[in-house]
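Homework help board

Subject: predicted structure for assignment chain

Our instructor gave us this sequence and asked us to write out the predicted structure in token form, then describe one feature. I got the tokens but I'm not sure how to describe them. Can anyone check?
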Amino acid sequence: MRAELAVAADGVHSVGRSGLNPTSDPFFTGQVAWRAMVENMHDVPSEARVFMGPGRHIVSYPLRHGKLVNIVAVEERDTWVAEGWDHVGDADVLRARFADFEGPSAALLDAVGDVSVWGLHRHPIAKTWYNEGVVLVGDAAHPTLPFLAQGANMALEDVWVLAQCLKNKGLDGLQAYQNIRMARVPRVLKVADGNARNYHLRPGPMRSVAHLGLKTLSNLAPGVMLGKFDWLYRHDVTAPR
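My token output:
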């Protein structure tokens, strides 16, 4: 098959990315994500929940019209863990790592059977996004850590901008595509990196001040925290340029 342009949307281990960027230096972040799905036996509502603890946090949200609950439990770890979704974990070890978590999160962990372990590695944003009939989108261009839930959204935004640039300028629009996205993507990745720290604050002055600030803002001005992310959630990628 021959094409004028091949769009590499093949993820963090992209063949397209490695072809355009032969050298890349990912590194282990010292964090591991346990991933599992369980039946929704506890009427988990249709919302994303974050349970935070020292050096760890758990994210849960329903899937398949509320029939299942997806669980992502992240812990800090000194020992290196391989990257990928297909590494089998031990549910009893998972429960032991989060034994001090209580309430809804503990009930979810009790229901876990099959679980995978995913070493979180930080990959730099690709320097070259296009060349010789290939262009990168999504994690192939800018892998992100899963702490802002924006990986898929950034890929969708990429595709929209790429389509508009190709429509307006043909293949000459590839540089415009990269320029437009590079004005936005690094900020998103930086906030995701910051959340990794914020979710794992250990007992001490910094945690006390942070939690007091969150509580105060939530009570006095609940819209302030959400407003801080207007640049992210109210961004209209479809707006004319």
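Reply (TA_rk): Your tokens look well-formed. For the description, you could write something like this. The longest helix spans residues 151-169. That's the kind of observation they're looking for.
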